[in-house]
Write a structure and sequence with these properties.
3-stranded antiparallel β-sheet, 10 strands, globular, Chemotaxis Receptor Methyltransferase Cher, domain 1, 7-stranded mixed β-sheet, binds S-adenosylmethionine, 10 helices, single chain, alpha/beta, 278 residues, Rossmann fold
């Protein structure tokens, strides 16, 4: 049976080195069984008898598609609408009202945000809903949320913008009516993101380890539940690159278990997992 296929320490090291170099995900030895179990499925599907055979196949594919599938099988894409509600509450009740006031005074009606590691799209759509609600429809405001991920399969789902009833449960009912429209798909009720919301979110592939063709300054960045898979050096490098892109007074949001303690940075701590560039 392929499920019991053996992953040698040497093959595990090879896989973890490649993954680390490609996308910063740190697969320490404690992850060996997880890697074996997740990739066993790929071996079974491709009818490979050993990890060596499988890796040879992955590396032979110069389009990089096979490697993307490998990374996808090893990373977690878990996400939800309005996940970590305190971040959206902070945006809604504190950060956005103050920022809009400041911008109005300067006749600057542009707001730019980034969801770095957006998975299947629930996070950037929640950010865009919060923004559109704050500016009360667009008026003269020019709002955009850039949403990036390394997973092409997650980006496909995100761009489609169709979610089942279970997934849209955290969206408040008024906003559900405003920003989502229901359909029947294969006899199931599904909800599709309306154009007014879709137009505000730009999805694109981006590996955070590579160059970022992004023009700042940005007003806020969500990079949540992504850095948890990176080592301290990689986290530190990312945090400082975020700093460079943010405007002064702008904010960085990290995931619930991604405090910046132990990471060298210049951000001002606002509340757990919320940091401001003074
Ligand atoms: C657990 S999800 C988090 C989704 C969302 N930010 C949230 O908190 O709900 C982590 C996402 O990070 C992405 N990711 C992991 N490594 C990445 C990298 N090097 N560059 C870009 N995205 C990456 C994964 O593909 C995955 O979609």
């Amino acid at each position: 049976m392929v499920q019991s296929v053996v992953l040698s320490d040497r093959d595990f090291r090879k896989i973890s080195d490649l993954v680390y170099k490609h996308c910063g995900i740190n697969l320490h030895t404690g992850k060996k069984e997880l890697v074996r179990a997740r990739l066993a499925k790929r071996l079974r599907l491709g009818k490979f008898k050993t990890f060596q055979q499988y890796m040879k196949h992955v590396l032979k594919d110069k389009t990089g598609k096979e490697f993307s599938v490998l990374v996808d099988s090893l990373s977690t894409n878990l996400t939800s609408f309005f996940r970590e509600a305190q971040h959206f509450e902070f945006l809604r009740s504190q950060f956005l009202p103050a920022m809009l006031e400041q911008k109005r005074k300067k006749h600057n009606f542009k707001i730019r945000a980034w969801s770095a590691g957006c998975s299947s799209g629930e996070e950037p759509y929640s950010m865009a809903i919060t923004l559109l609600e704050a500016v009360k429809g667009k008026g003269r405001w020019d709002t955009k949320v850039l949403a990036t991920d390394i997973s092409t399969s997650m980006l496909e789902i995100a761009k489609t913008g169709i979610y089942d009833s279970e997934r849209i449960k955290p969206v408040p009912s008024l906003q559900k009516q405003k920003y989502l429209v229901s359909h029947r798909k294969n006899k199931q009720k599904v909800f599709e993101v309306r154009k007014c919301l879709r137009d505000d979110v730009i999805f694109t592939y981006l590996n955070l380890m590579n160059d970022w063709p992004i023009k700042g300054p940005l007003d806020f960045i969500f990079c949540r539940n992504v850095m948890i898979y990176f080592d301290k050096t990689t986290q530190e490098c990312l945090i400082n690159r975020f700093w460079d892109l943010l405007d002064s007074g702008a904010v960085l949001f990290t995931g619930h278990s991604e405090s910046l303690t132990g990471v060298k940075h210049k951000f001002k701590y606002i509340q757990p997992t919320i940091y401001m560039k003074p």
